[in-house]
Each structure stands twice: as structure tokens, then as C-alpha cells.
Amino acid sequence: MTPFRPVGRKSTTREPIIQEPEPFEPEATRRDADVTESSRANRGWWDRNADDYQIEHGTFLGDDRFVWGPEGLDEVEAELLGPPEDLKGKDVLEIGAGAAQCSRWLTAQGARPVALDLSHRQLQHALRIGGSFPLVCADAGALPFADGSFDLACSAYGALPFVADPRLVLREVRRVLRPGGRFVFSVTHPIRWAFPDEPGPEGLSVSASYFDRTPYVEQDDEGRAVYVEHHRTLGDRVRDIASSGFRLVDLVEPEWPAWNTSEWGGWSPLRGNLIPGTAIFVCVRD
């Protein structure tokens, strides 16, 4: 599997500051990786790759768009957090914010976002682009906020695909939300784990068990994980949400739009028109 790495249409206003990547080629494997190893590996991966990510995908993300996934579903159209006019004055936590494009869009709607990310380097790009909202470098499984601090929380491919126990994140998000608060998060659609991560016809034949939850791990020559992604079935996600005290009110599977002709990683028009690539879970804290 690969993380959300879209490409696209709108130029960023400032060029990223470049840092040299570490010159090693990791080995891809499937093996167990616990909470600590996953967090350490993914913090390092995003710090090393933040520059390349922002250069390659900053045009698609823009500086102030709110995009839910590689299909290009925009919150302007989806209104999964609610009508834009209802966001004014709301305290919103963005988890796995990267360069905080979604938080900038929320600010433009009159909301009061806080952008949180595990990667210090990603947040440096948020500073480079600018904004009047707080940036917080922290693990999503241990949120540094008081109970009931936010009205809404959101995460576009942030944190949830990369943690060994997503219930830790879900319970933390529930804790910091006020009663009636909404948490909306997107992840790679679970069905994609049964298929090769290829954009062409070879990516349309099942090659692995959908029920195999063994994490995808990239490791160095000493066997230390440098990137980890975790698989949960659709049923696992629903059970995680329910057991963490949320009520699932919608599950959105964006269709591939005609305007999006891009290919990257395992995402492509060919695959997107046949099988879902993203799952968006809309949850409410009662």
C-alpha cells in the first residue's frame, strides 16, 4: 500500500524548502508492528519525505483546499462536516494535517482550527505556507488537549491508516470532542488491500486475502521499520468506531470523477471506475 499521494490542478504559492533524503532503499514486507514501532517509523518517514510530498502533490492539494482523498472529493461539495455556513465559530481539530491545507479552508469559513501532525517537517511546510491557526506536533493516540475542547474533528488520510490500534486515536478524539461533536475521517478503502497496488490492469486481480490484517512494513537492512501501514476490514472499522463511543452516521465511498485523469501509486481512472479507493467514515459523539 502507499499513502495518499495525489497530484493535480492548482499551484501552491510558495516553493518548498528542500532537504536531502536519506539514501537507502527499504525492504517491503508483511509483518507485525506494534504501536510504538509504527509511531516511530511513520514519524521518521514523513519527516524524511515531507519535502517530496509537498513538491509532488502540492498542486492537487493547493494551499487552502479540503480534499478527502485521491478521487478529489472536496468538502465544498461533500459538506461532511456540515454546511460551510455552520462552521463559523466552531473549534475544529485536524488530525494528520500535513501542511494544513484543510485547516486553511476551515479558517476561510470562519472556523477556529487546530492543525496537528506527527511530523515536525510537515508542520514546517504549514508554517511556510502560513496561517493564523495553531500548529501542534503530537501523536494522535495521545492528544494534548483538555476534554471537550472541540466541536468537530477531521482527518483526511491522516493517522488512522498508520496506527497499530486505531481505537486509541478514536477514544482520544471522542474525549476531546464536545457532546454532539462530529468526527469525519478518510482512509484507503479496505477492499484495496486484496489487490496489488498497481494502477493498470494488473491491479484488478485479487492477489491477497482481504482478511489478512498483517501490516505492510518497509524496513531498513537491520530490520527496523521505516514505514508502516495497517489494514482493517470494513467490519473492523465499524466495530472500532462503535467500541470507541461513536455512532456511525454515514459511510461515503467516492466515485472516480470524469475530470480526474491522473495516475499515481495504485490510484487511477481504470481502477477508480471499477472498485472504491477511499472510505470516509462520518461519526458522531453522542
First-to-last CA distance = 34 Å
* Helical proportion, percent range: 25-40%
The 3D shape can be described as: globular
Radius of gyration equals: 18 Å
Order of helices and strands: EHHEHEHEEHEEEHEHE
> What is the number of E strands?
10
Helix/strand-derived class?
alpha/beta
Spatial arrangement of strands, main beta sheet: 4-3-2-5-6-10-9
Provide a count of the helices.
7
Could you list the spans in which at least 5 consecutive residues all have pLDDT below 50? 1-18
Let me know the average pLDDT. Answer: 92
Q: Please outline the major beta sheet.
A: 7 strands, mixed
Give the strand content: 15-25%
Give a short synopsis of this structure.
The radius of gyration is 18 Å and the shape is globular.
Give the secondary structure arrangement, pairings included:
Elements: E1 27-30, H1 35-61, H2 75-78, E2 91-95, H3 101-108, E3 112-117, H4 120-129, E4 135-137, E5 150-156, H5 166-176, E6 177-188, E7 216-219, E8 225-229, H6 234-243, E9 247-252, H7 269-272, E10 278-284
Parallel strand pairs: 2-3, 2-5, 3-4, 5-6
Antiparallel strand pairs: 1-7, 6-10, 7-8, 9-10
Explain what you see:
This protein is of the alpha/beta class and 286 residues long. Helix content is 26%, strand content 21%. The chain contains seven helices and ten strands. The strands form two sheets. It has a seven-stranded mixed sheet, with helices on both faces. It has a three-stranded antiparallel sheet with strand order 1-7-8. β2, α3 and β3 form a beta-alpha-beta unit. α1 runs parallel beside α4. The N terminus is likely disordered.
